[in-house]
Amino acid sequence: xxxQLEQLLTKVRSALEVQKADAVATAVADEHxxxxxxxxxxxxxxxxxxxxxxxxAQMTAAVISELDSADLDEALEDLDKAxxxxxxxxxxxxxxxxxxxxxxxxxxxxxxxxxxxxxxDQIEKLLVYPEDSAGGIMTPELVxxxxxxxxAEAIDEVRRMSEDEEIHYVYTVDGQGRxxxxxxxxxxxxxxxxxxLGEIATRDPLCVKATDDQEHVANQIRKYDVSAxxxxxxxxxxxxxxxxxxxxxxxxxxxxxxxxxxxxxxAAELEExxxxxxxxxxxxxxxxxxxxxxxxxLIVALFRTSFNEQIFVAMLLFVPMMGAMGGxxxxxxxxxxxxxxxxxxxxxxxxxxxFSRELPITLxxxxxxxxxxxxxxxxxxxxxxxxxxxxxxVHTLQLAAAVGIGxxxxxxxxxxxxxxxxxxxxxxxxxxxxxxGPIVTTTNDIICVTLYFLTGMAILR
Length: 461
Fold this sequence. Notes:
The protein is of the alpha/beta class. The chain has three domains: 3-137, Alpha Horseshoe (MgtE N-terminal fold); 143-256, CBS-domain (Roll), CATH 3.10.580.10; 274-460, SLC41 divalent cation transporters, integral membrane domain (Tetracycline Repressor, domain 2), CATH 1.10.357.20. It has 22 helices and seven strands. The chain has a four-stranded mixed beta sheet. A three-stranded mixed beta sheet has the order 5-6-7. Helix 1 (3-18) crosses helix 3, helix 7 (81-90) packs antiparallel against helix 8 and helix 7 packs across helix 9 (105-112). The model has no long low-confidence stretch (mean pLDDT 86).
């Protein structure tokens, strides 16, 4: 925490000791809501409750809009219906919808019944969309005018809206409200006041559908480098816009989600206050891995009768090496491909492109790793035989060759899986980030152990 935030934390705690709303309001009067929210996260449970209770409604609303889902749930538990209603009234429709989404249907209805009808209607329209869709993150507050409107009228509307919202574009619509064009603010500045918007609007503007996934929206804004993107419904009617600051939150959320999947858990874990619930989320993944490692053990047992006892024991020494090297090589490739898919570029969605890039790399790495494994086996086995840890009947060069070739095959097989699985998951609508998680890594181990023993059978039997 920075020195500035440390000072704010000290001021807030001192004000909370007095237990007076005026003292708390004075402590945070000149502070940014994001800084107050960061201080809120490090307070004790009792201090958090007191802070939310004593903050002015406008500051409470601003602070709540900066909190993540877990902290937001806790903050709402400390507020009664009247306080939540007051906060919702202060929030913009999109932020208000995010807050109400954390409440039950009964609580939502009770709050919406107490706020102005126009504000409630805007919020209700947002609540019908999935939380992670364009409709779920958009704001309905924008400047929309008919094509026949003059530049002077558009400038007046921008001035009026800019008091509460940051305006980037003016959108033109037809008689049915369908999006027909977009006018950047700079065009309003350089055009004559009596010019019609239809004359300077960009036709067929970039837009997204309300049902589009938020990650697609983020990729569109990043790709075309726009400050905001309009959102339309299935009929092309303009219903809102997504701004760049909304997308920054989305990008962080999507990155966190991918990291959690790759670590073998879920982003929902942080939203759970209960250790038991968080443990349940992790255990679902770990138990699947446990099942996978059990399968690996069964495969080793199945190959037991394919070798004499001395050779089988010697081969077991290199099973961990096979699983680790194969799993890591597959993980490297799947991580690279998952990251490529996350950017949303058309080229990254082509499996052939990934094969043409990754396969030559794998064909270089696999034999090199195989030679290293062969060298380790050819040096290590005589050493172990000297101390009686491996039977002297085991032929060193043959076993070293089996280890080396088995390593090459294991890396090749795991790498191919790492190339295929992310694209396969994406094809069926599953987040490709799961392809870099423990479940697929465990599958790699099974493949690597199987290929290793099959190679050993071909060389040593």
